[in-house]
Automatic annotation (TrEMBL):
Ranges of residues in domain Ion transport: 3-119
Organism: Eurycea arenicola
Residue intervals passing through the bilayer: 12-32, 79-100
Lineage per the UniProt record: Eukaryota, Metazoa, Chordata, Craniata, Vertebrata
Superkingdom field: Eukaryota
Chief subcellular location: membrane
Keyword Cell membrane part of the UniProt annotation: no
Keywords carried by this UniProt record: Ion channel, Ion transport, Membrane, Potassium, Potassium channel, Potassium transport, Transmembrane, Transmembrane helix, Transport
GO cellular component, one term: voltage-gated potassium channel complex
Protein name (record): Potassium voltage-gated channel modifier subfamily F member 1
SUPFAM superfamilies in the cross-refs: Voltage-gated potassium channels
């Protein structure tokens, strides 16, 4: 079935991966004024991220990537717990950094969210 093949997950990923090239090519031919729009450039950059998704296609042919995928799927809960501990640690240490630097007049930590980057 050609329609089923065309709408398969891997073919959709391939189409989304090459779409930014054709969008930027079309916008280049339409004129430079459209390329100056910030929203258009941001949309093209977001579509370029889809190139990373082509790795999924390689996973079918590589036993190493299949093993890595299986390992990540089987340790999903543990990785989630690790990320939660990381988020709590960042929050705690950014709050501590903000509290310690609050009395300094030239501090870069104006708020706790600004100190997240440091933590």
């Amino acid at each position: 079935n050609k329609l089923h093949f065309a709408l398969s997950f891997m073919n959709i990923i391939d189409a989304l991966a090459i779409l930014p090239f054709y969008v930027s090519l079309t916008l280049t031919h339409l004129g430079a004024t459209l390329m100056e729009l910030t929203n258009v450039q941001q949309a093209i950059q977001a579509l370029r991220i889809m190139r990373i998704a082509r790795i999924f296609k390689l996973a079918r042919h590589s036993s190493g990537l299949q093993t890595l995928t299986y390992a990540l799927k089987s340790s999903f809960k543990e990785l989630g717990l690790l990320l939660m501990y990381l988020a709590v640690g960042i929050f705690v240490f950014s709050a501590v950094g903000y509290t310690m630097e609050q009395s300094h007049p030239d501090t870069l930590f104006k708020s706790i969210p600004q100190s997240f980057w440091w933590a």
